[in-house]
Amino acid sequence: MFDLSSIERFEQIATPFYYYDMELLDRTLDTLVELSGKYGVRVHYAVKANVERRILQKISARGLGADCVSGNEVARAIECGFPPEKIVFAGVGKSDREIYGALTAGIEAFNCESLHEIYVINAMASMYGLRARVAVRINPNIDAHTHKYVTTGLFENKFGIASHEFDDLVSLIGRCGSIDFTGLHFHIGSQIAEVSDVFSLEARRVSEIVSYFEDKGLTVNEVDFGGGLGVDYDDPDSGSVAPFETWFRAITENFPPRPGRHIHLEPGRSVVAQCGSLITRVLFVKSGETKNFLILDAGMNDLIRPALYGAYHKIENLSARFRPSFSEMQAYDVVGPVCESSDVWGQGRVLPLSVRGDIMAIRSAGAYGQVMASRYNLKDFAPAVFSDTPWDAPAYVDYFASGHAERV
Ligand SMILES: *Cc1c(COP(=O)(O)O)cnc(C)c1O
Questions:
Q1: Out of 57, 161, 300, 375, which residue is the most buried by the measure of CB atoms under 10 Å away?
Q2: What is the C-alpha separation between 332 and 295, in angstroms, rounded?
């Protein structure tokens, strides 16, 4: 975690910024690599969770593959050391340009999400005299028991191919001369907390679907269960490494192995969420009619998850402990500066008595944080700072007595 005691005059560092604890990322990757060997699963990091080059390079160096959802992600993954033959490419709306780029790069597989897409990829491969490896994303109609915006495996969602098209799918694959069918792909949602129950159910359902297609004469060698493993947002310190083993076990115990068949997984959030924090400062303390507000300099433009999903992030005051009054606590509504009422970090959060200039951490911000940042309100992008890289902290420019100015 970000440690202010190692920084001289921390009151003056420029905020907000994303801080990445690379030692924690290493420990997470150690666990993931060890367990993927133990359970014989192939792991593709879901690049969309965090696309910082330093992070991608660290992950590719450990031999993991990549799961991409755009042409630019495929290009970024290759740039950062992922071999094309370990890159899979999903997404319901791949453009011709994106398909062409991935075809010529020679990726491991297109995870196709509609019959129409398979048809187009086959036509393009044929036109350019190339072959496309294709896996088909199936919608297994499983409730992941997570937020409705991050549920992807129900029939009401736009993802994957549903059962009423299975027969047409088999016949289409038979007619496509420029594709090599590799297997089936699934991804039922994100931030899944009931790991054992949901993934055991997914594995059993997948096993039935695989049998269905094999009965129809297709050989399903690659079975990709997607990502979705949840992390502990309430307690990022004791839950710093996600429960990868519970996940791997739920799947491998409920999906019978077969020679020549490989299980693939695509964790995103569970790899990078806990290593990132958004570091921000208190600009103002305001007493409202019924509550106290802490107004931070980071907002929904930097990290949209609370505004978009009502997501919970733990908030810590990192600098209060350097004051004698540290033990005093107070409830605050912690908000950002953006002109939207949804720009709220948390309501009724009990924190040490906080003052202008305090440095705060929004925890578990490594996944779906920096990648979703925008310049709404023409705010600047928060830069990334890495724990293993010397950092010349830029100074916070204030025009008033900085630091711990007393409350008015
Ligand atoms: C987003 C996504 C993932 C990663 O999901 P996490 O919840 O971050 O693990 C994996 N596969 C596909 C196809 C995705 O779209």
A1: 300
A2: 10
